[in-house]
């Protein structure tokens, strides 16, 4: 291997190799089609031995071309095989495209994010689930991360947040409900909700929405949602004028 | 000699075998294995890294040439529709 003296991340290196193999397969397919051949040759297996210097920089494995005098360089042995569509589907990691990925979370330093990915945690949902099941200490051990730092980042990630408060009709026209939208509004159990310090009945709750059945005087004030001890958010809202003038949507924070 | 992207080199090697598929002989090659010495270079382009690998320009290495890499390649005849 020669050329660039700059070490490149091994995943980029392998991706560049895969891109070239895909390109060759596509080119062969096009040639066979242009020549109207029913059969073609395709790359079934490929392996490459390369002499490289391997470095670990900030938990990232990087490979650097072995120079002429690098007699003790490592040998990187890569074996790739053709995968079929059923194989891809069988082994694909089921992930919602809209899910927030760990590498997008700004509250976690890049080095820590990489460690979490190494531990098999790709999405924020996975991290939260594991945190709920095992706690921050276990994740810290798994990913070799300082527990305090991880706990702080997780606290930020699971902190409830209200983005909108709306009124809506209940089962009868006279009944008015409050729908709260936001993030992390429910964890393992139904959240405690209060308006001006007075409890409110929770009809439905999930991570993004909470449906409340407030009493007549509870359509304004400070809304407090506590998903568990030390995880609470407060929002001031006032939907009383909206209720008087016309039914509909109101503000929140 | 310029080191070509690996895909170009493979296309040329495999492309030269297409004639084998075109001839309707009673006996024909259906798979092929190659082991090649290669010069490898990783180029940076706007689209990202480009993995370049090509057969060496010279058979002999000098003290100032980096060592050869080695490419083992197994090719198999396959139906065109399978890839689509």
Q: Any idea what the CATH architecture of the largest domain in chain A is?
A: Sandwich
Mean pLDDT over the full residue set of chain B: 80
Level of helix content of chain A? 25-40%
| Strand adjacency order, main sheet of chain A | 1-3-2-4
The CATH fourth-level homologous superfamily of the largest domain in chain A: Immunoglobulins
Total number of β-strand segments of chain A? 12
Which oligomeric form is depicted?
heterodimer
Largest sheet descriptor of chain A: 4 strands, antiparallel
Helices of chain A, by number, come to: 7
Radius of gyration of chain A: 28 Å
CATH fold node name of the largest domain in chain A:
Immunoglobulin-like
Shape of chain A: elongated
| Span between termini of chain A | 58 Å
As a percent range, the share of helical residues of chain B equals 10-25%
In the predicted model, the low-confidence regions of chain B spanning at least 5 consecutive residues are none
The CATH class of the largest domain in chain A, by name, is: Mainly Beta
Order of helices and strands of chain A: EHEEEHHHHHEEEEEEEEH
């Amino acid at each position: 291997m020669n050329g660039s003296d700059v070490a490149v991340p091994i995943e980029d290196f392998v991706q560049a190799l895969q891109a070239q193999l895909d390109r060759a397969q596509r080119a062969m397919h096009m040639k066979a089609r242009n020549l109207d051949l029913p059969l073609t040759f395709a790359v079934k297996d490929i392996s490459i031995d390369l002499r490289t210097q391997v470095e670990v920089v900030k938990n990232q494995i990087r490979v650097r071309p072995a120079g002429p005098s690098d007699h003790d360089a490592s040998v990187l042995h890569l074996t790739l095989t053709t995968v079929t569509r059923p194989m891809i589907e069988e082994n694909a990691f089921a992930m919602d495209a809209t899910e927030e990925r760990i590498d997008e979370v700004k509250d976690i330093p890049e080095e820590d994010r990489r460690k979490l990915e190494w531990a098999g945690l790709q999405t924020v949902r996975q991290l939260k689930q594991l945190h709920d099941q095992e706690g921050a200490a276990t994740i810290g051990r798994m990913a070799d991360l300082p527990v305090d730092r991880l706990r702080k980042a997780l606290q930020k990630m699971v902190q409830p947040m209200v983005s909108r408060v709306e009124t809506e009709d209940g089962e009868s026209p006279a009944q008015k409900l409050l729908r709260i939208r936001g993030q992390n509004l429910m964890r393992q159990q139904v959240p405690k909700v209060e308006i001006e310090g007075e409890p409110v009945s929770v009809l439905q709750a999930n991570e993004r929405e909470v449906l409340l059945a407030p009493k007549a005087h509870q359509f304004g004030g400070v809304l407090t949602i506590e998903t568990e001890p030390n995880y609470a958010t407060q929002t001031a809202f006032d939907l009383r004028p909206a209720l008087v003038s016309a039914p509909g949507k109101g503000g929140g924070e | 000699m310029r080191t070509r992207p690996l895909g170009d080199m493979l296309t040329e090697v495999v492309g030269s075998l297409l004639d084998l598929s075109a001839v309707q002989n009673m006996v024909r090659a259906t798979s092929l294995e190659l082991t090649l010495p290669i010069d490898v270079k990783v180029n940076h382009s706007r689209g990202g890294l480009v993995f370049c690998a090509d057969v060496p320009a010279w058979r002999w290495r000098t003290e100032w040439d980096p060592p050869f890499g080695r490419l083992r390649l197994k090719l198999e005849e396959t139906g065109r529709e399978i890839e689509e």
